[in-house]
């Protein structure tokens, strides 16, 4: 919630609305289906901070625990929708070849092809040195703080931003005075001028929203937008647990390799844990092994809400395939990628 969000009432409504929209679309596309899915199916949100995830042996599911050891529940599928660096969750697996009660780090991103790689019976590399041993550098990189500042009464200082103050009749992205309505800064420009981006957010000139790597002083804003500028709102994204977006460091020194969407598969092998375990009536075998999926896998390359949506769509289809809701098929090369 807050005055900077684009959705009336708060961006936390995004996921429930998306699920209801998908449910409605499925019902329209599957007329005559025996599905009992309703468009008004409630989305249950449990405001609990999970500290430990434990994958149990013999397809018993995954247990989620609070910091005080309280069991929240046991689940077949767990989807992590927060950066691994800051989720604050301990990922553990129970059982080994010698002791069914021993706990060990979960080998995140350790899935291998048993036909070509040396793997244990779970189809994972052993978590030598901890469960993060197989994660790429991109899954461990720091995040940077981002400041959002909204101003009114501002006039872009063309000379300060090295802009060509020449009006154009055919450029819809320019103001009437020839100045652009939005500016995206390069790394060099950000370091020199202190802005990441600037956008005019109302039809009337003078109201701008800008992103910056640090807070903007009154003097800085008056230099960039004139002495009549008024600060309407400032928000800092990040905090004690890290920043708001990955620090890509211009692609230098850190791996751009992404983690897998499937971080851990409790199935013995790489088969997928129950997607094909179906009886004669088509029902899923409820004894499928648990799995852990990761929505933020694609943040190794770029970070945006659109990328999160793509990751969520990919994970949802992988989960649906695992549960036997959809089956793999050959897709025409002109068809949808995900």
Mean pLDDT: 76
Rg for CA atoms = 25 Å
Shape: elongated
User: What about the largest sheet?
Assistant: 5 strands, mixed
What class do helices, strands and sheet pairing give?
A: alpha+beta
> Could you tell me the number of beta strands?
15
The percent of residues in helical segments reads 10-25%
Strand and helix order: HEEEEEEEEEHEEHEEEEH
Uncertain spans, ≥5 residues at pLDDT below 50? 34-39, 114-122, 268-287
The helix count comes to: 4
Strand portion: 15-25%
Task: Give an account of the 3D structure.
The longest helix has 18 residues. The protein is elongated, with a radius of gyration of 25 Å. The two termini are 31 Å apart. Helix content is 14%, strand content 19%. A five-stranded mixed β-sheet has the order 3-2-1-5-6, with no helix packed on it. A five-stranded antiparallel β-sheet has the order 9-10-11-8-12, with no helix packed on it. A three-stranded mixed β-sheet has the order 4-15-14, covered by helices on one side. It contains four helices and 15 strands. The chain is α+β, with helices and mostly antiparallel strands.
Task: Write the SSE topology.
Elements: H1 14-29, E1 52-55, E2 62-65, E3 71-75, E4 77-80, E5 90-94, E6 103-105, E7 143-144, E8 146-152, E9 182-184, H2 187-193, E10 197-200, E11 208-212, H3 218-225, E12 230-237, E13 245-246, E14 262-265, E15 291-294, H4 305-322
Parallel strand pairs: 1-5, 4-15
Antiparallel strand pairs: 1-2, 2-3, 5-6, 7-13, 8-11, 8-12, 9-10, 10-11, 14-15
């Amino acid at each position: 919630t807050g005055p900077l969000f684009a959705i009336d009432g708060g961006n936390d409504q995004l996921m429930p609305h998306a699920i209801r929209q998908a449910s409605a679309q499925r019902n329209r596309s599957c007329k005559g289906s025996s599905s009992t899915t309703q468009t008004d199916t409630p989305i249950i949100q449990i405001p609990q901070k999970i500290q430990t995830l434990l994958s149990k042996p013999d397809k018993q599911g995954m247990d989620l625990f609070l910091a005080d050891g309280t069991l929240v529940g046991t689940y077949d599928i767990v989807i992590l929708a927060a950066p691994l660096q800051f989720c604050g969750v301990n990922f553990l697996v129970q059982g080994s070849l010698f002791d069914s009660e021993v706990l060990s780090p979960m080998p995140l991103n350790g899935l291998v092809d048993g036909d070509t790689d040396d793997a244990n019976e779970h189809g994972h590399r052993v978590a030598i040195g901890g469960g993060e041993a197989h994660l790429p550098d991109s899954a461990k990189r720091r995040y940077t703080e981002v400041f959002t500042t909204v101003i009114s009464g501002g006039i872009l200082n063309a000379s300060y931003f090295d802009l060509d103050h020449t009006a154009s009749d055919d450029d819809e992205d320019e103001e009437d005075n020839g100045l652009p309505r939005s500016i995206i800064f390069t790394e060099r420009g950000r370091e020199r001028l202190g802005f990441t981006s600037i956008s005019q957010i109302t039809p009337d000139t003078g109201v701008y929203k800008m992103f910056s790597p640090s807070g903007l002083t009154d003097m800085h804003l008056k230099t960039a937008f004139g002495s009549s500028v008024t600060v309407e709102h400032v928000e800092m994204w990040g905090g004690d647990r890290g920043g708001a977006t990955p620090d890509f460091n211009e692609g230098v020194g850190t791996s751009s390799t992404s983690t897998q969407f499937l971080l851990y598969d409790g199935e013995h092998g790489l088969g997928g844990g129950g997607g094909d375990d179906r009886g004669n009536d088509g029902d899923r075998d409820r004894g499928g092994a648990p799995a852990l999926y990761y929505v933020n896998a694609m943040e190794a390359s770029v970070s945006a809400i659109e990328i999160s949506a793509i990751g969520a769509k990919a994970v949802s289809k992988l989960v649906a395939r695992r549960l036997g809701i959809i089956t793999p098929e050959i897709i025409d090369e002109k068809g949808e990628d995900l």
